[in-house]
Specification:
Chain lengths: ~160, ~200
């Protein structure tokens, strides 16, 4: 019985939708009270994996800001079943993960943010169409400061 | 306030990063770095060539691996046309052991594979691997003619539709404007030596 549970439980990981850059932007470029934190990462990217706990930390979600974290995986589609899903299960990642389904980076990178060179990790924080972008590894304090800035910007407009 | 200061600091850092990147038309920063045969290779060693395909790359990054064979092919095709490849690994092996020098030696490339422990990546403003800088040898020395991606299909060489780098080389060879002269690609952020 324990053995059965052991094999069954890890299979309850999240499903991962495949989205285009259009899908992604349509979802976060909206007018509502939600602050979207969109992190571009991949299982093969060491610094990305290192910073993942920041996006799931209780401290991050403890504030009074309505927050939606989207982890946008740049893993290769052919590795979805063999690497991405097992990784999410083994780490019990709870934040929503989507897999970006795009071909030519030269076309879609600028659409996310023109300041992005294409290196990952990279994070976009967006609320009501106002965004801040950060290329590089974030710690909790730095991410909180990006979120605070977006929310202050909104109130000062 | 503290948060605003932190953000400003972050903005300054990113501004510095973008200001640090050489632009198309700029003079190419010189370098002298150790090759996998323990000889020092300098940009000035190439002054008899028409140009240099300078590629920041590494061993661990999946995107760099995707391009290994395509970079070999570029050298085979363009070295005889006086546009040889010079590759530079800007990563310290502290983060990824396979980026270490002995692993670079094992690659056995036909072109230099230099260890950047002097911050050359910063002089160019390379942020990731792979990151390409095409250098055109002009009357005024090496100038940057193109920055960015090798082509438009990192994951599958069979699905390449636009060979950005080859188009840039051919434009330079024909004395035409390079267009596009700047492209973007996903890559692994550089984990440099702390100087």
């Amino acid at each position: 019985m324990l053995f059965l549970l052991g094999t069954w439980l890890p299979m309850m990981g999240q499903k991962v939708a495949e989205v285009s850059a259009d899908d992604l932007l349509a979802r976060v470029q909206v007018n509502n009270d939600t602050t979207y934190v969109i992190n571009f990462w991949a299982t093969w990217c060491g610094p990305c994996v290192d910073e993942l706990p920041v996006f799931e930390s209780e401290e991050l979600h403890a504030g009074d800001v309505a927050l939606k974290v989207l982890l946008v995986s740049l893993d290769f589609k052919s590795h979805k079943e063999t690497k991405l899903l097992p990784f999410l299960r083994s780490r019990s990642v709870e934040a929503e993960v989507v897999l970006l389904d795009e071909r030519n980076p030269n076309v879609w990178i600028d659409r996310i943010d023109e300041a992005w060179s294409g290196a990952i990790p990279a994070t976009l924080v967006i609320k009501n169409g106002v965004s801040v972008f950060y290329e590089g590894e974030l710690d909790l304090q730095h991410l909180q400061s990006l979120i605070a800035t977006i929310n202050h910007q909104k109130s000062s407009l | 306030m503290k948060q605003v200061i932190l953000l400003l600091f972050g903005l300054m850092v990113s501004l510095n990063a973008s200001q640090g990147q050489v632009k198309v038309g700029d003079k190419a920063p010189g370098f002298s770095l150790m090759n996998t045969d323990y000889q020092i290779v300098s940009l000035s060693d190439y002054k008899q060539q028409d140009g240099v395909i300078l590629i920041f790359t590494c061993n661990h990054c999946p995107y760099a691996k995707f391009y290994e064979e395509r970079i070999n092919q570029l050298h085979r095709k363009y070295a005889p046309q006086s546009f040889p490849v010079v590759s530079i690994n800007p990563n310290d092996s502290v983060k990824y052991e396979v980026d270490g020098f002995s692993y670079m030696v094992k690659k056995g490339y036909d072109f230099p594979y230099l260890l950047d422990n002097k911050g050359v990546y910063k002089a160019y403003g390379a942020t990731k691997t792979p990151h390409v800088f095409l250098l055109n040898n002009t009357d005024e020395g090496f100038r940057v003619a193109y920055i960015g991606a090798i082509d438009d299909s990192p994951q599958d060489a069979d699905e390449v539709e636009e060979k950005y780098l080859e188009a840039a080389i051919e434009a330079v060879q024909q004395g035409k404007n390079v267009n596009p002269s700047l492209t973007k690609a996903i890559g692994c952020s550089i984990k440099p030596f702390v100087l």
